[in-house]
Amino acid sequence: MDSATSETPVASETRTPLGASADNGLKIVVVGGFGAGKTTMVRSVSEIRPLNTEETMTQAGEGVDDLKGVRGKTATTVAFDFGRITLDERNVLYLFGAPGQERFWFLWDRLFSGTLGAVVLVDTRRIDDSWYAIDRLERHGTPFIVACNDFGGPTFTPQQVREALDLDPHVPLVNCDARSRESSKIVLITLVEHLKELYADQARAPRQELV
Ligand SMILES: Nc1nc2c(ncn2[C@@H]2O[C@H](COP(=O)(O)OP(=O)(O)OP(=O)(O)O)[C@@H](O)[C@H]2O)c(=O)[nH]1
Ligand SMILES: [Mg+2]
């Protein structure tokens, strides 16, 4: 198999060194169905050259990998993607993109460990492919937001997407284009804001007295 894309240049030509005052690293994972755009998002938003573990898809995967809806895809993530984005002077997000194919799902538990929150990327042409990711995150107790990646397919109202995914009303839902750095940044900011609110709510919640 050819090792594909760790040499692929990032969107920004300049590399940003990690600031000396950055002392708070937050681990975020990008999950979702096969070919939903996870690698694309990590790649477009990372300020360092991202690590991608993509391999060329070969005939050996035929009959194993479900290529429905992703014909023409030539590479797939076989371990994880890794990138970094500085939020402010102190806070840095470390981004991990999960592999989307079922045969690599066993890696997800490891990826979730120590994760503060997750982005579920959804291709609305294949909404059902997102159920597994949402289910795993809910079971793991990892907070998440949902981002519908723009593949130019039919558009659905937020309400339709929420119903199809059976989403809790408190889970933020946004549209994005994973190829765009700005759009991907908005997704990550939405997640960070959501996490802040969750932690603020937890801090406000009355403590249960021990009897
Ligand atoms: N039109 C469009 N194409 C996109 C977008 N995001 C990703 N793609 C394309 O969709 C294909 C799959 O993207 P990947 O980033 O490899 O998807 P992935 O979720 O990492 O795939 P796996 O790791 O194999 O599960 C690539 O050819 C991308 O160029 C998007 O927002 N719009
Ligand atoms: Mg990938």
From TrEMBL:
Matches recorded under InterPro entries: Gliding_Motility_GTPase, Gpn, P-loop_NTPase
Top-level lineage group: Bacteria
CDD domains, alphabetized: Ras_like_GTPase
Keywords on record: GTP-binding, Hydrolase, Nucleotide-binding
Family: Belongs to the GPN-loop GTPase family.
Protein name as annotated: ATP/GTP-binding protein
